[in-house]
Amino acid sequence: MEMREMLYEGKAKKVYATEDPDLLIVSYKDDATAFNGKKKGTITGKGAINNRVTNFMMQRLEEQGVPTHFVEELNDRETVVKKVEIVPLEVIIRNISAGSFAKRYGVEEGIPFENPTIEFSYKNDDLDDPLINEYHIQALKLATPEEVDTIKKMAFKVNAVMKEFFAQRNVDLVDFKLEFGKTSDGTIVLADEISPDTCRFWDSETHEKLDKDRFRRDLGNVEDAYDEMLKRIIG
Ligand code: ADP
Ligand code: UDP
Q: Fewer Cβ within 10 Å of end Cβ, the chain: N or C?
């Protein structure tokens, strides 16, 4: 049997080295966490769904000119990706108020914005991923101004492509989190995942939540929501 070195085990995925120093294998788990790991559980089938959904979306985005880390789906849970140096930022785009935005600014959830918003969190579990602005990013040398510009342009492009894609499937794309990384030649690419774990999806007619909020908020039918999103996305 081929031996694989596990480089990292995160909350939702394991990351393995390959013989090629520029490639990694990510393996999606059914483990679910929320509130920075304080709530833990299992969503049966989630790993396979998030693997399929992420790869499908990354391929659609590549077709629309967004460079991504995607290389090849190996099996239902595992995918080969380009190894990148992750820019330690969570890039959050919002089209409709929800979650921490609604809480922070004291507004109800479900208010559509005229223009999408962008915000950054510093990816640091010990600090609970604090909100950060572009000046702080420069001060902490997390990315150059040029890199932040590239990331912003790419994130809005991802939003434009995905909003349209989901609208055709009767789903409102409320908000989502992206991560970007630098390949060995310094190119910024979209990395990590795009899935019901990292996006808020609401049915356009019923406004039913079809994402991880069902787990975070104990709404029930969590597996059904993930299955439904897989069906709407891939058919
Ligand atoms: P977390 O670290 O938040 O618990 P995961 O369980 O999803 O998250 O772990 C996956 C880890 O792999 C994350 O830290 C993510 O930033 C990182 N990652 C995602 N894509 C790549 C890539 N192409 N190259 C290197 N690291 C990546
Ligand atoms: N998100 C994520 N990982 C995080 C934080 C947020 O994938 O560590 C996603 C979340 O699923 C939602 C969007 O980013 O789609 C905005 O999340 P928000 O800031 O509202 O925070 P939350 O309500 O999840 O605490």
A: N
Contacts of 4 (CB under 8 A, 6+ apart): 16, 17, 18, 25
Q: Amino acid letter at 22? A: D
For residue 146, the number of C-alpha atoms closer than 13 Å in the C-beta half-sphere is 4
Distance, C-alpha 221 to centroid of its chain: 21
Q: Quote the pTM value.
A: 0.98
In angstroms, the CA 218 to CA 210 distance is 13
Q: What length does the chain have?
A: 235
- CA 169 to ligand 2 centroid distance, Å: 22
Which of 86, 198, 219, when mutated, tests ligand 2's pocket best, judged by the most ligand atoms within 8 Å of its CB?
198
Ligand 2 atom nearest the C-alpha of 177 is 14
CA of 195, nearest ligand number: 2
Q: Looking at residue 126, what DSSP letter applies?
A: G
Alpha-carbon 108 to chain mean position = 24
In the chain, the DSSP E strands lie at 6-9, 13-17, 23-28, 31-34, 39-42, 70-73, 78-82, 85-86, 89-96, 112-122, 131-132, 171-182, 188-191, 199-203
pLDDT digit string, tens, across residues 132-185: 999 999 999 999 999 999 999 999 999 999 999 999 999 999 999 999 999 999
Nearest Cα to Cα of residue 155 among 203, 87, 213: 87
Please check whether residue 114 is in contact with residue 99, taking contact to mean a CB–CB distance below 8 angstroms.
no
Q: What is the DSSP letter of 64?
A: T
